[in-house]
Structures are given as structure tokens and as C-alpha cells.
Amino acid sequence: MPAVTETIETVQAVTESTYKWGFETDIDMEFAPKGLSEDIVRFISAKKEEPAWLLEWRLRAFAAWQKMEEPRWPAVKYPPIDYQDAYYYAAPKQKAAPKSLDEVDPELLRTYEKLGIPLREQAILAGVEGAGETPADSRMPIAVDAVFDSVSVATTFKDRLEKDGIIFCPISEAVKTHPELVQKYLGSVVPQGDNFFAALNSAVFTDGSFVYIPKGVRCPMELSTYFRINAKSTGQFERTLIIADEGSYVSYLEGCTAPMRDENQLHAAVVELVAMDDATIKYSTVQNWYPGDAEGKGGIYNFVTKRGACRGARSKISWTQVETGSAITWKYPSCILQGEDSVGEFYSVAITNNYQQADTGTKMFHIGPRTKSTIVSKGISAGHGQNTYRGLVRIGAKATGARNFTQCDSLLIGDLCGAHTVPYIENRCLSAKVEHEATTSRIAEDQLFYCRQRGLSQEDAVGLIVNGFCREVLKELPMEFAVEAQKLLQISLEGSVG
Amino acid sequence: MLEIKGLTAEVDGKPILKGIDLVVPQGEVHAIMGPNGSGKSTLSYVLSGRDGYEATGGEALFHGQDLLAMEPEERAAAGVFLAFQYPVELPGVGNATFLRTALNAIRRAKGESELDAMQFLKLARERMKALSMNDEMLKRGVNVGFSGGEKKRNEILQMALLQPKLAILDETDSGLDIDALKIVADGVNAMRGPNFSALVITHYQRLLDYIVPDRVHVLMGGRIVRSGGPDLAKELEAQGYGAIQAAA
């Protein structure tokens, strides 16, 4: 159809110029020698002044990794990665750990300012800078941990959160200040040898966020971590660990960007969540790594392991992800539903445009009785993009009365892209109910024409239709991020759709 | 003022319009009647710029502007509104969001200020009240799960909000019961005035009992074969298209 042709042309017309976060910060960096070896693992551990147990832990992971092979089952194609041709540690040079924002390199602060990340809100909350001047300032603040390449450069609202007993800090700091918590939970959800990329991460992870919400505490603000890859030829290997104790609640968001480069850069993160009795963790991701250019050159390889354990009764873990970036996305945020009546949710929007590839989905392990899970996945493919939903719902023999509902919808734009749905369902319990629905559709020519006849441009029409398609997922995001995500979709769609 | 001269058009390489001459002066409502396959819907799509409906000759001027050279959204901004025979569903897109986006796009094109959500809601509620519509309709997805009558009323609501200079109603009466038909007709009649003109495309005379046209044109085989006053519609109803065809 002619309208579709036009859409494709619009898509092709867009180049990497739509990626607005592709700048590079010129800053003095400290690197580990290139390559990966036991010495590098020791180097990182020493840099972080880690206790002996953690070094041992890393070395075990490294030993496991050396015996493992990269997974070949995902529906993604890429040339072999030379793991020796990358830096595993890159940190902005600074004399000592900054005690306040004033001690942070101004170049870094400017970087986050450019990215729109509010590192300065700390001052507003503390009443230093024009606190509550305008009604707009009275909106709920967001605490931010900013991770730049291998290290956390700033964490905001720490003091305010401490009043409620909440710990929110870089994981490298938590290792020192709360070793008992870190040692108890690190690797308890994603063991070192879980998979190739998790093992790699366990060996060389450099920073990430650590969150502990004490019993009965409802975290008074959104927590977020903002990941930025800046240095050339580096990988980012961050590790996030969130523990929600009995009856607590936390909503956490992560965002990420990287400069535009011709080379592919590796991002292999691990996120572990633990929810005790009656605790709820809401984890939202807006993933906007550099996707590569229109010809598929460059971009981030996003190979991530995210898993949450609903250990307690009536606990709940909810993953929401908006995946617009990366050359390749390989991630399956999962829930282990151990506690009785625990609930797992996965809401996902994944866009692939140009030559982006995504193989993403979730795994829901129903172990406890009456556990419930909901999966809503929206895949959008444009250009030469390939989008695969891969999901596993496993219901164990003891998960009586367990329920799962899965809905996978794919939207195709143009005729060179692909959408694939690979659901695995394993049910060992007769009283469990599992539902799976899947649809694949195109943006119809009549929908576009209808919108344009009402005065909308082609781009706005596509944006509106795609946002409508994703609505069920976007409404799960915290309000302010939902607006951001909508804009991001629109931008990716300018690039990816129209 | 819409002036169509010698307009020819084809769909999938097949000639459908074979030389249409038609003038709709500003302030007038004209009806286009004709049997199935005579080119009525093609005419509405060619005038609104739908892909796949290609004008191959002639011209269509709207207030002196070359309509055929404009993008669909430019025609909409110039004041051309098409009420669809089959309004399209947009799943997940709220009707209010859609209407406001459309209204603001057209206001922007006209150099007017955009309406915020509150201003829009106020305006929409006023217009809906005038059309005896329930504002619950604003909260639903665009045309999703709407009955046939609701979809047509939604078209009329959009027209009332966008305030076009020329409305093309493509068989808006099809599938409507008599109450819905009256609401649609009231909506169109309320717009009538010196700055509004309409092309009412219909198969049946029934709608024209409620929207009394200034002129009636009979479209057959891609040409206008007869034109006349409102009585022509009644004649058609009594004698059928066959008689006209025989006479033509």
C-alpha cells in the first residue's frame, strides 16, 4: 500500500541524528589495562577496596565464566565479541569520593544536566536553593544514583531517605557500610554461574545501586539509577540489588544512554530483587542505549539478567520496561514466585528500528500456592528491526490454584522487519490456569489516513497509534516517566516509524 | 467554494471518475446520489487525498487552492472534513486525546493557540451537549467498541469541533436508525451558514428529508449525469436510478 511505502521512506529518511543523547563527555578517566583476566578481577576488587569474601566471590564467578559459552539460542545475530578487546574498568579521575555535589567534577554535572537528570534536586529538598518556590517544585522528588561508566558519581536524597531507615547508595559503598546485607543477598537470586553474561558481570561488576527498605516502610519517593556509558571501548557491568523487607514498598526506575560510536559496546548488567512478606517492588526501566546508526553500525549490546524473588507471602514484584535503544537487547526480567499468594508482573514495550534486534520477554516461576502472574508484551518492529518475545511460564507441582495471563502483541511497520513470539508454558499443577493471547498487526493505511484527514501529520499519526498500542504498558510507569516514555517512543518512532 | 473541473481518477489502475464537473458555492449543501459503484466514495477520497485514489486529470480548487496538490493533513487544515463511511478504530487511543490532538493540529495550522486539556474538555462537553451525546464517549478508545450509530455520531462530533469549511459526508446515513439519523442531520444543519458548505453523499433519499440540499447531483459511471433541486432526490426515490440511466 502506498501509505506504508511512505512510512518506510520516512523511516529510512531518519538517521542517527534523532538520538539526542549521543554526545561524549571529555573528562580525565582512569582505566584498567585492556582485557579480561584474573588479574583484572583482582584489580577491580582492589580499586573498590573490597573485603576478601567479595574478591573470592568474583574469582569463583570468573572461573565459572571461563568454562561457559555465550548463549546461541536468542534470535539475534552479531559478530563474535572479543572479550579481551575492551576495558573492564573506567572511572572519572577524582581525588577522593565526593562528599557533596560541589566536589563532583563540574563536567560530570553538566553531562547529567544535558541528559536532564536532576542531580541538583537534593539541594532543593534540603531547603538550600529556593525550596518550594513554585508549586511545580512541590511535586514528589526523585532520588537519583548516577553511574558513569564504572562508578557511581553521585547519589541524591540519601540523608532524607536515611531518616526512614532506607538505604540507597552505590553498591560499592554498601559493601563497606552494610556488608552483612550485601553478603547475604548478593547472588541469592542470580547466582554467579547463572548464565554466561551473569557470570561475566559477577566477575567484573564495578558499580550499581543498592536499596534496602526496612520493615513496614513505604519509600516516600521514586528511586532511580541513571546509567551512562561514556568512555570508548569499555563495557558497563553494573549490579543492582534491591531488598524490600516485610510490608515495605518501593518504586524504582532506571534509565540509560550512551554516546554514538561506530563500535559496539557491551552492557551486561545484573539486577536482583528480593521481596519479603507483603512487600512490593515496582521496577521500571526506560532503556535508551545508543541503538546504532541507520545502517546498523555501532550501538550497545544490552545483555542483561534481571530477576526478582517473591520470597514472602503476598509479596509482589512488577517489572515494567520500555526498550527503545541498544543494537541488541537480550533480557528477560523474571519473577520467582515462592511466597504463597505472591504476584509477578511483566509489562514491556520493545521497539526495534533500522537494524536493531531484541530478544526479550520474561520468566515466571510459580512455586507457591495461589501465585499469580501477568505478562503484557508489546513489540514494535520497523525498518529492518527484529523483535522476539521469548517467555517462560513454569508452574510447579505445589503451585495449586496458580494463575497466569499472557498477552503478546506485535506491531509491524513496513515489510522488512520481523516479529516473533516464542512462549514456553510448563505446567505441573492440574489446578493452575494459564492463558496466552497473541496478536500481530500492522499500522493500517486506513488508520493513518483517518488521523491525517483530521489534520495530524504522518509522524504524529504514527506516534499516536503506537502510543495507543502501548497504552496498557505505559500506564504502569510512574506518571512522570510515562510522559518521558511517550516522548521517547515518539522520538524513536520519528526514527523508527514515521 | 469548491470547484471541480474535468476530474478523472483511478484506483488500482482502473478509471473510476471519468470527468466530474461540480461547483459547490460557499454556504450551500449539495447532495451526490448514485448507485453502488458509481464512484461516490472515490470522489470523497480523491478530494480528501487518500493514497491509492489517484487523480489522473482535471482539477479541484478549494477557495482557489489546488486541493489535489496538498497532503491530506494540509487539506484538513484548509477546512476539508471527511465524515467516513466506515470510521476507523484506533485501539488504546483515547477519544478525547485524539479529538484534542486533531483540533490542536488544525488550530496550529491556522495560527491559533492550542487548547489545553481543560479548555478542550469544556468545549467538547458543550458540543456534545448540543448533539445530545454522552461525554462518556470521550473516555473510550477512538471508535473502539462503538456501535455503528455511535461511530457516525463521533464523526459529527469531530466535525462540530473542527469547524470545517467543507464537510464531505460519505454515506453517513448508512446503518443508522431514525434517531441517530436525526442527530447526525441536526449536527450538519447546525453548521449550516455562509461559511460552511457540504457534499452529502448518499444512496438514499431518506437523509435528504432531514438535511435538505440546495442542489442534488446524480453520479453514475464516474460522471455527473443529472443535476437539479431537492425534488430530484424525490424523483430518484420514486423512479430508481434505472430511469435516469435510460434517459442519460
Describe the structure.
The complex is a heterodimer of chains A (498) and B (248). Chain A is of the alpha/beta class. Helix content of chain A is 25%, strand content 33%. Chain A has twelve helices and 23 strands. Chain A has helices spanning 2-13, 38-47, 52-66, 106-115, 121-125, 158-162, 171-177, 179-185, 196-204, 445-453, 458-474, 479-496; strands spanning 29-31, 90-92, 142-148, 151-155, 167-170, 209-213, 222-228, 239-244, 249-257, 264-267, 270-275, 280-287, 299-310, 316-323, 328-331, 334-337, 343-352, 357-366, 372-381, 386-395, 403-412, 418-427, 433-442. In chain A, the strands form three sheets. In chain A, strands 5, 6, 8, 10, 11, 13, 15, 16, 18, 20 and 22 form an eleven-stranded mixed sheet that branches. In chain A, helix 2 (38-47) runs antiparallel to helix 3 (52-66), helix 3 (52-66) packs antiparallel against helix 9 (196-204) and helix 11 crosses helix 12 (479-496). The longest helix of chain A is centred in the last third of the chain and has 18 residues, at 479-496. The model of chain A is unreliable at 1-17 and 121-139 (pLDDT under 50). Chain B is of the alpha/beta class. Chain B has a single domain (2-247), classed as P-loop containing nucleotide triphosphate hydrolases (Rossmann fold). In chain B, strands 6-9-10-3-11-12 form a six-stranded mixed sheet, sandwiched between helices. In chain B, a hairpin with a 2-residue loop joins strand 11 and strand 12 (223-228). In chain B, helix 2 packs across helix 3 (95-109) and helix 5 runs parallel beside helix 6. The radius of gyration of chain B is 18 Å and the shape is globular. The two termini of chain B are 28 Å apart. Classes of the chains: A alpha/beta (498), B alpha/beta (248). Chain A binds chain B through residues 1-3, 6, 444-447, 449-458, 460, 464-465, 467-472, and chain B through 48-52, 71-73, 75-77, 81-82, 84, 87-93, 97-98, 101-103, 105-106, 109, 141-142, 158, 162.
